[in-house]
Amino acid sequence: MLRIHFGDADLGAVRVAAAPNPLWEIAASLHRFQTRDGRWAYAGWHRTVQIRLREKGLDRALRTILLPLFPRAAYFPDFLTPGRGVDGLAAGLDAILATSPQRVSEELGILARTVGAPLWAARLTGLEDRRELVRVLRAYHDVAIAPYAEEIRSRFDAERAARSRGFMDDGVDGLLGGGGPMIRWQRPSLHVQGPPSHRGLQLNGRGLTLLPTYFLWRTPTSLADPGLPPVLCYPVLRGAAAAPPDRRLADDPSVPLSTLLGRSRATVLHAAAAGATTGEMARAAGVSAASASRHATALRDAGLVTSSRHGTTVLHTLTPVGASLLRASSNDEGL
Predict the structure, then answer these.
(1) Which residues partner with 222 through β-bridges?
(2) What are the tens digits of pLDDT across the range 9-20?
(3) How far is it, in rounded angstroms, from Cα 198 to Cα 219?
(4) CATH class, range 247-332
(5) pTM of the predicted model, to two decimals?
(6) Where are the domains of the chain?
(7) pLDDT tens-place string over residues 202-240
(8) Which of 203, 221, 226 is nearest to 6 (CA)?
(9) How many C-alpha atoms does 95 have within 13 Å on its Cβ side?
(10) Is the peptide bond prior to 188 cis by the omega test (within 30 degrees of 0)?
């Protein structure tokens, strides 16, 4: 268990990352190849990506380069998941290239001692070998992560909306207390089940960044080096799988939403863009809570929204299909 200890200054410096970190998504997705735990939740992705990796000639790089560097074990090097990744893949890969050879050597030494590292890994202290690693990471991302970017962002935004809702309702307690069953907030510490080593992390005024991560399954994780900016990666919200979208909506997004859905239901869909409870949807559309609930059910059945319960409320957020429809409609209407 990991215990993260907060001081007063830290409580005012807790934040949710502004965007997914593609380097953490790469790391977590590589762990999906190393266990059957949660395989059902990623079954379609797993089958498709295996085929695409073979077609692109990346299956050997997966086995000999990526999986040995990102073991699903007690440790993998921190320099492979830089915080700058929240600014995009290019920024994250540049950070890997900019890592000092000394740090690369130290972290690969830890990998060798704790898990085992391939002999060639020592060459990553050299810039040219790291450039080759970056090339492989980019190619893997193009196959395994980029095609799922909308789904990843949709789930990320839903979780971010839920954490924001928790903060607005209950302050820091609501923000830190809603990270899932593996995370327990008991002032002044956050108790995280999963990281293999029993250790404590003193924030010492640095605060904490919460990073919802799509390919992480059940077990939260963090950087191994306590001297690095503190980050806690944890699994995104997972509601029930969305039904196939209504083909009228997917095939002809140029039709105004109010024509396709009706004015009230279109308003409810707009409300879900920022995350909304059933009551908030009702107020936005000027209808009763029962009517708003029926609209939300219809939109969920059409694959446009996903719903998750938080305490006594249900939070509705857009699916990737719903987000695409809303963007297309907004563009066509000049909004």
Answers:
(1) 232
(2) 999 999 999 999
(3) 15
(4) mainly alpha
(5) 0.78
(6) 22-148, 247-332
(7) 999 999 999 999 999 989 999 999 999 999 999 987 543
(8) 203
(9) 18
(10) yes
